[in-house]
Amino acid sequence: MAEASKKAFVTGHPIRHSRSPKIHGHWLAKHGIDGSYQAIDVAPQDFAEFLATLQANGYRGGNVTIPHKETAFALVDRRDEAAEEIGAVNTLWFEDGTLWGGNTDGHGFAANLDDHAPGWASNGPAVVLGAGGASRAVIHALKERGVADIRIVNRTLARAQELRDRFGAGVSAHGMAATNELLADAGLLVNTTALGMQGDETLTANPALLPDHAIVNDIVYVPLETPLLAAARARKLKTVDGLGMLLNQAVPGFERWFGVRPQVTAELRALIVADLVPKL
Ligand code: ATR
């Protein structure tokens, strides 16, 4: 009997904005794999049932996005180290019938900077704007890559303090009022908040206050050049947009489900950039 076609998915609610099917579809075609990667909208009340029937429905695994990342974390049989540290799961796969949950967002963040700003991890203190789920993935990656001074800045100080307590040594928590001072000797500024997304011109940190060698990264990728990145570019700082994080976070999942480690290429990036016009 021929081997069944390999099936994977991305689930969220809503899910129609997801670019993941385009990314994985590109790699499936490129490698000539008999497989599929499908977007599946699952409402929160149906998510547990969805997970429980995955294997019976022939899935090798898939991606999980908002609002299911924390629920997936709670429901999987086993979790990898990154998922444990971040407290959320974005990638699911089976090993000998056991449902594993991993988190590749931190990997995507670090790989994007490796691609576009080599040496970033030894460039000095990092200032991270925001203290939500995305921030946890970024801080995990910064710690893993040895950044010794990580400064979380958040509108709600208590949330920054929770992350400081969670990640421990080398991580400090600050309210917005401290931002200017924290930027003066920073080597990396990362925005993890939704501020600066399409149509939002608000800037919470001024790149003009950063030293000349600083790198600025926004994990928001719609628009590709956020107001923060535009201001950093005007200041002649090295900038890295957020699209590479999305592309790189997809790599480990594809390898698990389909058995080939795919490449993040200029061709793939161009394909997704062409798709970035807002979907209504
Ligand atoms: P995600 O999982 O995408 O990180 P989240 O958990 O909702 O999303 O976190 C959103 C982050 O953006 C938080 O740090 C939030 O600040 P608060 O913790 O104070 O809510 C930040 N954020 C959202 N809107 C903001 C605004 N208008 N001004 C400043 N920070 C904002």
UniProtKB/TrEMBL annotation:
Q: Which InterPro entries match?
A: Aminoacid_DH-like_N_sf (IPR046346), NAD(P)-bd_dom_sf (IPR036291), SDH_C (IPR041121), Shikimate_DH (IPR011342), Shikimate_DH-bd_N (IPR013708), Shikimate_DH_fam (IPR022893), Shikm_DH/Glu-tRNA_Rdtase (IPR006151)
Annotated gene:
aroE
What HAMAP family is this protein classified in? Shikimate_DH_AroE
Q: Which residues form the Quinate/shikimate 5-dehydrogenase/glutamyl-tRNA reductase domain?
A: 126-194
| Gene3D superfamilies registered for this protein in UniProt | Leucine Dehydrogenase, chain A, domain 1, NAD(P)-binding Rossmann-like Domain
In alphabetical order, the GO MF annotations are: NADP binding; shikimate 3-dehydrogenase (NADP+) activity
The job of this chain, per UniProt, is described as: Involved in the biosynthesis of the chorismate, which leads to the biosynthesis of aromatic amino acids. Catalyzes the reversible NADPH linked reduction of 3-dehydroshikimate (DHSA) to yield shikimate (SA).
Q: Could you give the subunit structure recorded for this chain?
A: Homodimer.
GO CC annotation, single: cytosol
**Ranges for the Shikimate dehydrogenase substrate binding N-terminal domain?**
10-92
Give the pathway annotation: Metabolic intermediate biosynthesis; chorismate biosynthesis; chorismate from D-erythrose 4-phosphate and phosphoenolpyruvate: step 4/7
Enzyme Commission number(s) from the entry: 1.1.1.25
Tell me one GO biological process term.
Answer: chorismate biosynthetic process
Q: Which residues bind shikimate?
A: S18, R19, S20, T65, N90, D105, Y221, Q249
Q: What is this protein called?
A: Shikimate dehydrogenase (NADP(+))
Per its UniProt entry, what is the enzyme's top EC class, as one word? oxidoreductase
Write out the catalytic residues in the record.
K69 (proton acceptor)
